[in-house]
Amino acid sequence: MIIIPAIDLRGGRCVRLTQGQATAETVYSQNPVVVAKRWCDEGAEMLHIVNLDAALSNDDERTLKALERILYEVNIPVQFGGGVRSLDDVRRLDELGATRIVIGTTAIENPVLLSHIIDEFGSTIVVGIDARDGKVALRGWEKISNIEAVDLALKVSEMGVERIVYTDISRDGMLSGINLEATRQIAETSGVKVTASGGVASLDDIYAVKELEQYGVDSLIIGKALYEGVFTLEEALDAADSGEEE
User: Fold this and answer.
1) Chain mean pLDDT for the chain
2) CATH superfamily of 2-242
3) Are the CB atoms for 47 and 7 separated by under 8 Å?
4) 53, 60, 130, 168: which one is catalytic?
5) Residue ranges per structural domain of the chain
6) Which is catalytic among the residues 8, 53, 168, 205?
7) Is pLDDT above 60 for 173?
8) What is the C-alpha separation between 84 and 104, in angstroms, rounded?
9) Rounded distance, CA 86 to CA 156, Å?
């Protein structure tokens, strides 16, 4: 299982939001490039970078410049998402060098566009399904729809999407543990690879998510637990490799 450190960018800085609330921000670094290089140096195989400015419909030029610098400085794949809502957005990120591009709101609001994007970019495209109480959240988590997360997972898999990033936003940034049951349901329903996200609180969560590999959950995004020093990236990587406590 792959452990993917998260870097959330806002105003060109590395931050974390609690449950996606724009007013609940903690700044971890003014220089996200340094953070990216740290995770790379410590053994990360991939980074998950979120453009919070675009997700929250703010000016995101500083964030895109930070992404460009990160892509130049690190030599591991980068998965990038947040506010990706047009074909031009995808093309720009592809040109910058993002390995995977995560699309969220557009998957619901414009499935025709999503289909065109999948046709052009194939496995580069990942659908991010962010949910609260099983319902899909839109536009930077500011709106909760009536759409069931499992229904969206099935729909996008039928459209040709090969990977889903699933986040329970009620747990994101809370250090309250991964929603294992919901993650398993998304993987089982869709039949595609799933990256779990939201709420990792201890190494036990890594061992627990590893048990879901049989359903197609092959990776785990970790944010706050790493930034708060709950465990080190090395410890997380060891847990993912071993799958059992020493």
Assistant:
1) 91
2) Aldolase class I (3.20.20.70)
3) yes
4) 130
5) 2-242
6) 8
7) no
8) 7
9) 17
